[in-house]
Structures are given as C-alpha cells and as structure tokens.
Specification:
- This protein is mainly beta.
- The protein has one domain: YVTN repeat-like/Quinoprotein amine dehydrogenase (Methylamine Dehydrogenase, Chain H), CATH 2.130.10.
Length: about 350
C-alpha cells in the first residue's frame, strides 16, 4: 500500500507533464487524456454525467492568447473514481495531491485512486457536511473546507477537524499578509486567531468567490457582480452585466474567479465563462452551444484551478471540458473538444 502511494505521488507529479507530451506527439491515447494523432474532437464516453474538467496548455515562451474560437474543451469522467460527479472545488496541495469537493464528500486523489472523506454524525472529528463548497490550503499546510454546514479547518498532521458555524462557506483564501478571508451567504468575513479563534464580518453581500491578484487587489464575486478591493480592502470598482454590451460581464452571478499566469482573470458565472483583460477591462465570453461540439459543456461554472504545471482544471454541473493544444510550438492554436 505504501509503495503504491509513493508511486501514485510520482505519477501525479508527472500528471500535467504527460498531458503536454500527449498534446505534442501523435498517437497518444488513454481514458484520462483521450488525445488522438489527428486532434479531431472525440467523445471519451457516452455517459451524460456531471464531471470535473481540465484545461491543458504548455506555457509559451512569449505570452500568446488564442482567439476564443480556437479554445475547445475535452472531458474526463466520474469513472475515474469521484464520489459524486458535481464538482464544486479543486486544489492541488503542497505534496502534489489533488483534492476535489463534490456534493457527496471530499475527494483526495493520489495518482492511482480516490480517498473519500464524509460526515459521520456519530463522530465530531469528521467533516461537518458531505456537501463541499470550497477547499483551501493555507501557508501552514492546513486545509480549510467550506461546506453547507459551516467552515472546517483540517489539521492533517494530527487528523483533527475544527468547526466554525457559518451559512454556506463558499470561498476561502489567504491574502499576502496571512489573513484568511471567507465568502459566504452571510457576507465576506476574515478569520482571527487567538484563544477564541473565529470569524469577523467585513461586508454583508452574499459572496461566492475570492481572489487576491498579483498586485495585491482582492477580487470578490457576489450575486451582484464582480468587485475589486484595494490593499486596504476598500472597494474601488464594480463590474456588472450591462445590457447588450458584449464587453461587459456575461452574468452578475459570479461563482468562481482565477488569475492565470498571464495576469488575466477567468470569471465563472451562472451564465458562462469569462476571461477578463484588466488592461482593457474587456470580458471575452465562452458559452455552451448544442450545435457546436467544441463549445464549453455548460454555462454553469463551479470551479477553476491552475496547478503548478500550468494546467487549468474546470468543474461544471453539466458535462466535462478539456482545453488542449495541437502541434503549434507556441500552443497558439489551443483547442477545446469533448
């Protein structure tokens, strides 16, 4: 078992690299990657299930942003071992393990198999709910889990769970000063340590997503649009859908935010996926189209995560999507297929 776990971690550490190799050589196939030599769109399986999705692109030497019609998605399935197929959150921890939050348990993937963490009503030292809304690892290697029943802090060294009451803990981050921020149905909170650790409310709006960007600004996704807070955590800008303006936010119900290695924000909403260029303040939209096989599989975006190799993982509530890159050395013709 120990040998399998060690091998699994080694496999996981090569996971993203193998995706890129599969993209750049012909004839690479498999249940996980489903790459083909001719790079045609291909169904991985026929099940109409909710799945985790991922996006792969080799970081180019010079920044290149492919046009929207060249970005396509492929898919992976719950057949790989997820406890449940509606994926709400994804992280890769400091040891390389992947953690997936679902509507029926917390999933840990070691490269070979999934380990499942579920609530036990007879045991207080378990996760507070099986419905996982968010996952975060802080600078002390502690896992913070947001659930429908509150905020949990998991110390893996001693297998200890701490529970903090909160209505729908949707998002968790640690800012550059070491402060933990939590978005919830009750508003935006920050966490204080001490003899009686707990949460202090910062703003009252329902908050679903939080990201501190590379410049120290805090981006807050709410049910009223996207907000930008400065380094003193004062609001300095708000972005909302503006009628028929194609350059504005695609939908005001922002559920997830991610800053990529180019400094662009990816914004997942209930109405589609946006890529936000902060320099031009223009949103580029990606939406599902039943007539276009290369479109994203659902407009309901629940999770976006970029791992240390530059692979972007996406969780939706309807189907799976994967971004892939043909044999352009710059990955300039990256595609999404299913």
């Amino acid at each position: 078992m120990l040998q399998n776990e060690i091998k699994g971690r080694s496999l996981l550490s090569l996971f993203s690299f193998l995706i890129l190799i599969c993209v750049l050589v012909s004839g690479c196939q498999g249940d996980l990657f489903a790459e083909t030599a001719d790079l045609e769109d291909q169904e991985i399986d026929s099940q109409e299930t909710n799945e985790a999705a991922f996006s792969s692109q080799e970081p180019p030497e010079a920044s290149y942003k492919p046009p929207p019609d060249e970005i396509k998605f492929g898919k992976i399935s719950v057949n790989q071992g997820l406890s449940q197929s509606s994926v709400s959150s994804i992280i890769q921890d400091n040891s390389g393990l992947l953690w997936f939050g679902t509507d029926d348990g917390l999933n840990k993937f070691n490269g070979y198999e999934f380990s499942i963490y579920k609530h036990d009503p007879e045991n207080v030292n378990t996760i507070s709910s099986n419905v996982i809304l968010s996952i975060f690892q802080d600078s002390r290697d502690q896992l913070w889990i947001g659930t429908t029943e509150g905020l949990d802090r998991y110390n893996r060294a001693n297998n200890e769970w701490q529970h903090f009451p909160l209505d729908q803990a949707q998002a968790i981050i640690e800012d550059s000063s070491g402060v933990i921020w939590v978005g919830s149905f009750a508003g935006l909170f920050h966490f204080i340590e001490g003899e009686e650790p707990g949460l202090v409310r910062h703003t009252p709006e329902i908050t679903y997503a939080l990201v501190e960007d590379s410049d120290g600004f805090l981006w807050v996704g709410t049910n009223q649009g996207l907000k930008k807070l400065d380094q003193d955590r004062e609001e300095i800008a708000q972005y909302q859908k503006r009628g028929a303006d194609e350059n504005s936010l695609i939908d005001n119900h922002v559920r997830v935010i991610h800053e990529d290695t180019d400094g662009d924000l990816w914004v997942g909403t209930l109405g589609g996926l946006d890529r936000f260029d902060s320099a031009s303040e223009i949103f580029t939209h990606f939406v599902h189209d039943e007539l276009i096989n290369s479109s994203i599989s659902s407009d309901t975006i629940r999770a976006i995560y970029e791992d240390r190799s530059g692979v972007i993982w996406i969780g939706t509530d309807m189907g799976r999507s994967r971004r892939r890159c043909p044999t352009d050395p710059r990955c300039g013709r990256s595609r999404f297929g299913r």
